[in-house]
Amino acid sequence: MNRLLALVVLSCSSCAFLSAPVPMPSVKSQLEPARAKCLFVFLPGAGDQASDFVKYGFFEAVRSRGLSADLVAANATIGYYNTGVAAARVHEDVVVPVKAGRSYEQTWVVGMSMGGMGTLLYSHEHEAEVTGLFALAPFLGSGVAQEVERAGGLRAWKAPEKVEKMTSGNYQQEIWRWLQEVTARGTPQLYLGWGTEDRLGESASVLAAALPKERVFNVPGPHKWEPWRKLWERFLDETPIKQACAP
Questions:
Q1: Model pTM score
Q2: Which domain holds residue 21?
Q3: Given this model, what pLDDT does residue 4 score?
Q4: Domain count across the chain
């Protein structure tokens, strides 16, 4: 999506991130031959890649807690968002193959920054298959959060009509419209986290105001992997996920 690309492309250190190969590559860690209860799907931020979830300890945090979970990180880089196919490719190239022949009790989507927006885009398109999502310092568009705040919050905001198809011109309004629905009914389960010095914290706080306090996490730190890892560990330790995905 072009607006999103315009805001995040400066943080991309390699033109390789602007490509969108099919099928989308991924990094997996599955319980073999055991049947896992939960599936975690990870989406990276701008300039990051799937292997960073291994590098920065996200996979290890799950394994060290002994959870019954399969893990897959999609290499959903900027090119997929720029061409508007991120959600479709994550589903068709990553999620569907992992789920083939397996039956999970819960499916969670986790992502930060651009990938945080990706968790929303994916869950919007495949809501029935998503138990919940954890958006870490998500990119939430430009201007809509302020519009929502001026209206008195997400519940008071007069949302536009649902669109038939999201485009680069309407996806921000549509995602916030969908968030209004999600926060009102409570499903899919939406959790939100960001560092207290994160540059995207202001827009995240607008969304957080519409969520139960137990679904919002903060730790000290900027828009970096270390705070995100700490937020991920808190999510694993302080939410019902530890019971839902227990062996």
A1: 0.93
A2: 2-244
A3: 42
A4: 1
